[in-house]
Design brief:
The protein has helices at about 30-40, 110-130, 145-150, 195-205, 210-225, 240-245, 270-285, 285-305, 310-320, 380-390; strands at about 20-25, 50-55, 60-65, 70, 90-95, 100-105, 185-195, 230-240, 255-260, 325-330, 345-350, 355-365, 370-375, 400-405. A hairpin with a 2-residue loop joins strand 2 and strand 3. With about 400 residues, it is α+β, with helices and mostly antiparallel strands. Helix 1 (about 30-40) crosses helix 2 (about 110-130).
Length: about 400
């Protein structure tokens, strides 16, 4: 039986692959041979990412995979946990001066795999440029793997004694669906925003980047569909590991806080809207909330352990793929890659929309915010309305790409 802090791999299915990743645009064209050698060399430092899913004792668990990780010179997707991916749960690709890592989100979260992609870039750029970079803060081959990185991130906490938090957010069941009536199809946009303009606007309106984007996207929805009376449900990604004091673990402990925007709420006052949204966010991100969530996770693992694997990969996995929110905003803490920054043009995190209609992944590097906006419908009306909101806010933007290439499936 898997421990409660280990990956729950059967929560991803071919219908809901739950894939995430990162895309990096470098100053020069990618050398595929160097990238391949670096990816294999890092197997020593990050063995927990070089795995495949295997059915063992009524469960799906990650086991070591000695086959090479695929590094392909194309932007087209493949399927993870398949022959074309050498049965790995991650894969690399590159094209021109872009490279990307795609991974099963059941295996890790953004905070967990960010150190890995930093190490990939460190070794790659060291060899490509011939430069000697300061290794401080990078996890490199030969360095020890601390227990805090791979073990139980909450071993020193009294999880079993956790009490229900004072505030628990009840979900809105009949929320606004951005995809309703739209043609189905994957579409992703890349946006570049000046950091100084975004932060100045946040400071003047009591906001933070993730809250501000949620508010402006909700305003965009109301602009597109002013007669709709349904509540817009926006989820903000949070990291229970960080909230409970462990910033160093690779395991998947990301979750969300939910911001509700009923049609009765006046969104004309940006400051008031951001203040109310931040209040909702703060209430849901107290340590007692996270401790309670981890306790429920532990209980769930115990309950699921005796169930047949077919049920876990069927009914339970499908229920996990039911739509839950209108949109999601995730802001990963990635402001600097240290000495590597001058060699990086753009940095995007990516996530398959899955249980939401639109997923916004936010990163910040070299004094710019980069937004990857993925949606499960082909209409561009919400995206265009969001650009109008940015213009009204006085925030300039560049649309860096529009792409219908999906992330790796499963």
């Amino acid at each position: 039986m898997a421990e409660y802090y280990e990956p729950m791999l059967y929560m991803s299915t071919p219908d809901n692959p739950n894939t995430m990743g990162t895309s990096v645009t470098l100053k020069e064209a990618v050398d595929g041979d160097i990238l391949r050698s670096v990816v294999e060399e890092l197997r020593e430092r990050f063995p927990y990412f070089y795995v495949k899913a295997e059915a063992i004792e009524n469960d799906l668990v990650p086991v070591p995979n000695p086959l090479p990780v695929t590094v392909r010179n194309t932007w087209n997707p493949i399927r993870l946990q398949s022959e074309e991916a050498n049965y790995h749960l991650m894969a690399f690709k590159y094209e021109g001066n872009r490279l990307a890592l795609e991974m099963s989100h059941s295996l890790s979260d953004g905070a967990g795999f960010l150190p890995y992609i930093k190490s990939v870039l460190y070794l790659y750029l060291s060899r490509k440029t011939g430069q000697t970079f300061d290794p401080t803060g990078f996890r490199l081959p030969g360095s020890p793997i601390p227990k805090t990185e791979t073990g139980d991130p909450f071993s020193e906490l009294n999880i079993d004694g956790a009490e229900p938090p004072i505030y628990q957010k009840k979900p809105v069941e009949d929320f606004y669906r951005m995809s309703e009536g739209k043609e189905k199809g994957y579409l992703c946009f890349g946006l570049k925003l000046p950091e100084d303009q975004v932060m100045k606007y946040c400071k003047g309106n009591d906001g933070s980047p993730n809250v501000l984007i949620a508010v402006l996207l909700t305003r965009a929805i109301r602009r597109v569909d002013p007669e709709n009376s349904k509540t817009v449900s926006a989820c903000i990604a949070i990291d229970h590991k960080a909230i409970l004091g462990n910033h160093d673990n690779y395991h998947m402990f990301a979750n969300v806080a939910v911001l509700d925007f009923p049609v009765s709420r006046d969104l004309n006052d940006i400051m008031k809207s951001c203040t109310m949204a931040r209040g909702q966010l703060i209430l849901q991100t107290q340590p007692e909330n996270s401790l309670w969530v981890i306790k429920q996770r532990k209980i769930t693992y115990t309950k699921l352990a005796p169930l047949p694997l077919e049920m876990k990969t069927g009914t339970i996995a499908k229920s996990a793929g039911i739509p839950r929110w209108s949109l999601a905003v995730s802001y990963a803490n990635s402001r600097s890659f240290g000495p590597l920054d001058p060699y990086i043009e753009e940095l995007y995190f990516m996530a398959a929309p899955g249980v939401i209609d639109m997923a916004v992944e936010v990163t910040c590097i070299n004094h710019n915010f980069f937004l990857s906006i993925a949606q499960n419908f082909t209409s561009e009306q919400y995206f265009n309305a969001f650009l109008e909101e940015l213009s009204l806010a006085g925030i300039s933007y560049e649309v860096k790409y529009k792409d219908n290439t999906e992330l790796c499936g499963l």
